[in-house]
């Protein structure tokens, strides 16, 4: 039996790590593109690491960057993937207002570079584009596949560009290319500056007496928050279908940032109102007020359905933060028995 090969851009990110896990479980050979950095950036993958010299190794990492189209093409030639999951992006909405040009270059044009590399190498691979509910922006909920886009940030604008580029390569060149329009999805592996992780971390640390307050911006924004481990399954399902198509992936429910904070703090027996303070630095020049996805197409055609909604998500994220807290150092933990005996003596 031939082993399927997948190439993942953004494998070091939240979704990349869950997707790599899923594909390895399914027996794939997984290749990931990572950026060269002066420090290691593979923490989310360390538990999956296999010595590439081992004959059993099925996870391979390669240096590359979305700004380097030549490298993307040479990697495709080398790896010859059956499936390409394009997850890499400058993915932080607030940061995209500070770095609009960089965000356009990576999140927008990076998609063109990768699709053009696939087209020019002529590989018959299937392509997944990480599209986002941020593309809907100001258009009121519920949002589905035919809802008009009205992005409210340079990030959202770049994702709209990437979405249409993906559709254009499907229509113009017959590429098997799909857009997964994913609503917010979170986990203990979420980047620390996204609001759910920021709140979950703070709730655990405040409970443990390690900090007193948490500074946030707009508490009234409402999001449709799901669990990342369930959402990567939808990405895989999209590439197994007979026809390439675009799908919304969401829970169909929403809550406000304030509600999410309430879930997290209540879980550890605290009142969020005693600990949250306002900092205008976390406001955005234009905000997305309300996102709720209608994922009925994915349920009907792919059989995908989420099981975890915001309240459970908040609890599982806070539990993970509590478990990861530094344990208080006791003498028995810090010193070997002989030293302890000497000190005691
Ligand atoms: P993430 O944790 O921020 O991960 C982003 C990944 O992209 C990281 O591996 C990062 O590498 C890589 N990357 C950034 N710039 C790059 C460049 N110039 N060249 C190569 N790699 C680069 O994002 P995520 O939450 O996993 O999301 C995955 C994708 O889905 C993103 O495209 C995001 O925009 C999109 N999306 C996310 C959500 C969500 O709620 N999570 C919803 C809809 C769509 P480093 O580790 O080196 O930084
Ligand atoms: O903000 C508000 C903020 O940064 C959520 C990305 O994965 O999902 C994500 O984008 C809400 C916003 O996620 C703080 O104003 C208040 O209304 O966690 P976030 P996001 O902007 O929704 C979409 C689908 C993506 O595609 C993106 O890649 O929370 N908020 N106070 C705050 N947000 C942050 N980050 N920090 C605060 O202190």
TrEMBL record:
The keyword Isomerase does not apply. Residues 7-317 form the NAD(P)-binding domain. Keywords: Lyase, NADP. Its EC number is 4.2.1.47. GO terms for biological process: 'de novo' GDP-L-fucose biosynthetic process. HAMAP family: GDP_Man_dehydratase. This is GDP-mannose 4,6-dehydratase. It comes from Streptomyces himalayensis subsp. aureolus.
């Amino acid at each position: 039996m031939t082993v399927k090969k997948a190439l993942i851009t953004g494998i070091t990110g939240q979704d990349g790590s869950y997707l790599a896990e899923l594909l390895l479980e399914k027996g794939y050979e997984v290749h990931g593109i990572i950026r060269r950095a002066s420090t290691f950036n593979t923490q989310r993958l360390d538990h999956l690491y296999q010595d590439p010299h081992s004959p059993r190794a099925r996870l391979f990492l390669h240096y590359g960057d979305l700004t380097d189209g030549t490298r993307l093409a040479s990697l495709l030639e080398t790896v010859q993937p059956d499936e390409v999951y394009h997850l890499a992006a400058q993915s932080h909405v607030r940061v995209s207002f500070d770095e609009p040009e960089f965000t356009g270059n990576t999140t927008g044009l990076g998609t063109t570079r990768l699709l053009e590399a696939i087209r020019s190498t002529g590989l018959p691979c299937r392509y997944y584009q990480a599209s986002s509910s941020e593309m809907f922006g100001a258009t009121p909920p519920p949002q589905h596949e035919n809802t008009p886009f009205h992005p409210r940030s340079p990030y959202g604008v770049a994702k709209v560009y990437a979405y249409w580029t993906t559709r254009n390569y499907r229509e113009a060149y017959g590429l098997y290319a799909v857009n997964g329009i994913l609503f917010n999805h979170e986990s203990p592996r979420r980047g620390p500056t996204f609001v759910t992780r920021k709140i979950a971390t703070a709730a655990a640390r405040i409970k443990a007496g390690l900090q007193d307050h948490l500074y946030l911006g707009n508490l009234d924004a409402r999001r449709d928050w799901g669990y990342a481990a369930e959402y990567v399954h939808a990405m895989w399902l999209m590439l197994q279908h007979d026809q390439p198509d675009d799908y919304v992936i969401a829970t169909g429910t929403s809550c406000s940032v304030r509600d999410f904070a309430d879930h997290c703090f209540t879980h550890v027996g605290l009142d969020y109102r005693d600990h949250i303070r306002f900092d205008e630095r976390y406001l955005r020049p234009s905000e997305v007020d309300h996102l709720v996805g209608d994922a009925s197409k994915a349920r009907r055609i792919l059989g995908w359905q989420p099981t975890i909604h915001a309240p459970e998500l908040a609890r599982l994220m806070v539990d993970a933060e509590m478990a990861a807290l530094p344990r208080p150092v006791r003498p028995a933990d810090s010193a070997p028995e002989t030293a302890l005996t000497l000190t005691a003596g």
